[in-house]
Design a protein that fits this description.
The complex is a heterodimer. Chain A is of the alpha+beta class. Chain A is built from nine helices and six strands, in the order H-E-H-E-E-H-E-H-E-H-E-H-H-H-H. Chain B is an alpha+beta fold. The chains are: A alpha+beta, B alpha+beta.
């Protein structure tokens, strides 16, 4: 299993309706402070992730559930592990926050997503936010960016391991019925080593793009 | 840069490249643009080549390693001990207090989303924001400091300026009354670069997620709707 680590989730693109189904959680230990004997705490996070119905999750040291079984991920947890995952509704975020708060594990937890939704979930769970990294958007030569619908998929891997070209290829394959949108979403998700790629949302976006291209071709 | 040996010309790898550095050459085999390849290794990890012809090239110099480590999230920056682009940014701020209540953290993700960045453009932005009051930490906290000639000016070392990376973060802190100046500097320098950057501002907030600096942002026409919320479950250093 590869040593996949770290993530980035702040600047996801997409419509508000689509982003309401896309929340990333990140478990963080701090070097030299609370980074020893992580495994029992990491297992608690995995337990909460499973109970809350995370659409994808993984460990920095072993990859995501799109590539490995949960048992394999559990087996390879070390003090270097960093867990992260994706939840697809505010209700699930609230439930996840309540569960982790109750467990009182002492590790940092970050939830990334639409602020009004995340802050509402915090309130519902009785959690007080500490620090926020606010996205101020994309600046500079924006004409270099791919179309928004492609960006909505590529930005779900914050490290940009998913190129616009490979998204277009999968849209083409779905359009030509060489694979389903769900298969395309999972194939793209396997390129994101961190486990924060929302393959369900990706499948929806790819299906929309394929349908739009078919409609355009039909005139 | 990665190397392609005994290519069969199937072109399977080309769409996988994150920066468009792979293309079909005139002799029917894929060629790698060495000035663009960031050594992110997506083409290798994805196993997209049906005959396994793509292999890592030599990483002989400091710059080779710097480019690869910052572009491949499976690698770790040695000095900070942090993978990815090598910084924990605000994710453990409930424990470390790295970004204090009386200051703002600024995170400038150069090259993101998905465009890539020449270090010459990183220098332009770094010089602009340092001049406006951003204080950039040392190499134990942020990888960019390793290639800076002078953190008090934002100047980079000359021999790194032509390097092309998938992304690198310019991050630092400034007093709250300098935020406006930093944003003005960014508004100006964004017109001078041949890439994009994703911008984030890190603030310790009240229980409603509010901070007065958000009002300053509104004056710039910016109303943040996405954020990375540290929910304060970490045990702080003092306890």
């Amino acid at each position: 299993m590869a040593g996949f680590r770290m993530t980035h989730s702040l600047h996801r693109s997409g419509s508000r309706e689509s982003l309401k189904k896309d929340f990333v959680w990140l478990m963080y230990q701090t070097k030299g402070v609370n980074d020893k004997n992580i495994k029992p705490k990491a297992l608690e996070y995995i337990s909460a992730a499973e109970e809350c119905g995370c659409v994808n999750f993984g460990d920095v040291k072993s990859g995501s559930i799109l590539e490995y079984s949960v048992e394999e991920i559990k087996k390879h947890i070390t003090d270097k592990s960093r867990l992260r995952g994706v939840l697809d509704s505010r209700e699930k975020v609230t439930k996840f926050l309540r569960m982790i708060k109750e467990k009182d594990l002492g590790l940092s937890l970050v939830i990334s997503g639409l602020l009004d939704e995340v802050l509402a979930a915090c309130k519902e769970a009785g959690v007080k936010p500490h620090t926020i990294n606010f996205s101020l958007g994309v600046w500079g030569k924006k004409e270099l960016l791919p179309p928004e619908e492609i960006l909505s998929v590529t930005t779900m891997c914050g490290h940009h391991m998913i190129s616009p070209g490979i998204v277009k290829k999968h849209v083409e394959m779905v359009k030509n019925r060489q694979e389903t949108a769900e298969e395309a979403g999972k194939a793209l998700g396997r390129l994101c080593p961190c486990g924060i790629f929302n393959h369900i949302r990706a499948a929806e976006l790819i299906a929309e793009m394929a349908a739009s291209e078919i409609k355009a071709a039909q005139g | 840069m990665v190397q392609v040996e005994d290519c069969i010309g199937c072109e399977e790898c080309i769409p996988y490249c994150t920066v468009g550095a792979l293309s079909m050459g005139n002799d029917g085999v894929v060629v790698v643009d060495g000035s663009r390849c960031t050594d992110c290794y997506v083409c290798i990890r994805s196993k997209c080549c049906p005959v396994d012809t793509i292999v890592p090239g030599p990483l002989n110099t400091f710059n080779d390693n710097f480019r690869h480590v910052l572009s491949d999230p499976t690698e770790t920056t040695a000095e900070t001990g942090v993978p990815g682009r090598g910084t924990e940014e605000s994710k453990t701020n409930d424990v470390t207090g790295r970004f204090r209540k009386d200051e703002a953290g600024i995170c400038i993700d150069m090259g993101r989303p998905g465009v890539g960045v020449r270090m010459r453009d990183v220098e332009k932005v770094a010089v602009a924001v340092v001049r406006a009051g951003l204080k950039i930490p040392g190499p134990e906290e942020t990888p960019l400091a390793k290639v800076m000639a002078d953190r008090t000016t934002g100047k980079l070392k000359d021999d790194v300026l032509d390097e092309y990376l998938l992304s690198i973060i310019i991050e630092g802190t400034c007093p709250l009354d300098k935020v406006e100046g930093v944003l003005r500097a960014l508004r100006s320098v964004e017109k001078e670069i041949d890439t994009v950057f994703s911008l984030g501002i890190v603030l310790q907030v009240d229980e409603n997620g509010y901070h007065p600096v958000l009002d300053t942002l509104e004056a710039f026409g910016i109303k943040p709707y996405r954020g990375k919320v540290n929910v304060g479950f970490g045990r702080p250093l003092a306890t």
